[in-house]
Please model this.
Amino acid sequence: MISPYEIAFASLKGITQVFAANILEHIGSEERFFALSERQLAAEMGFDSKVFARDYRDKLLEQANQEADFIASNKISTFYYRNDDYPQRLNDCEDAPLLLYGLGECDLNGAHFVSIVGTRHATPYGKDFVNRLVADLSKMLENVVIVSGLAYGVDAAAHNAALQCEVPTTAVLAHGLSTIYPSANRNLAAKIANGGGLLLSDYQSSMPCHKGNFVARNRIIAGLADCTVVVESDLKGGSLITARLAAGYCRDVFALPGRTSDRYSAGCNRLIANNGASLVTSADDIVNAMRWNARKPEENQPSLFRELSAEEQAIVDYLTSAGEAHINEICVNVGIPIAKLTGILIDMEFDGLVLTYPGSKYRLA
Model:
């Protein structure tokens, strides 16, 4: 059980693991740090600091006692940097927090951690890629965990895909665990906390959601994983910050390419063009680049794809060359009456052969 002294110590302004180790090397323990006077601390450390101020430390300790009560009352897990269950990947990040709070269950030191981030305005193209990526990773890898930020769009798609595939997922929050933002994702958060993974935060429960917290939150998303996948992004956005942080931590970064005319592919395309990320189109790209050992596919499995009719094959051939087409364009170019074509496309969508997009447009799945 974490002590109020450890909670308060982890809350010191500007504290890092290096600074914390320096303090404890001279002072001996977190409890003694809060027991000594300001003059005694300055003498033992060899310098003075505003974090040694008596009033400041007393205030932190008072808040920590309240947080300890919240932790006990709500079955919150704590991950302190000196304990074995602290995510070891974060030890390689110089700005990692000393303490994390969690609701739910997940081994933060599992074998394969993949962060998936992107725009809040995810398109069907991006969501479909996330679904396929998580599904394939779940089949190919043992102990894979999907990490994201519980935001709208790509984040929510990543968490939902993990839940669908019964893969643990960790949602890193930009506020304390006493609330959920955005509120529309409360049901999703509940599913994660109640058996799908872990809600994780480095903020105490009383911390509300501030704009600046999201950038700080992104460093945990980047540092917690072996690699980060940017699915869709405009030329500016939090996911590009996460990608930059991940690269700074010497983690692999991948980006999904898109059409040059698509706004939310512009950021990914630029990442790839500037060698800020490797191009990714499938789970195979990630597994091969990371040199992970994939499961061997089961033998004697029936084919996932049924035999196509002549009309379905004609549709597939046309979409292969066109990329994307309105139903009227398919009708004209394939020569199938619109009423019959509609039924065929519905059947193909159910069978996972095509994807439908707003405006009655279709692409191959």
Q: What stands out?
A: Residues 166 and 340 are 38 Å apart (CA to CA). Confidence is low (pLDDT under 50) at residues 299-304.
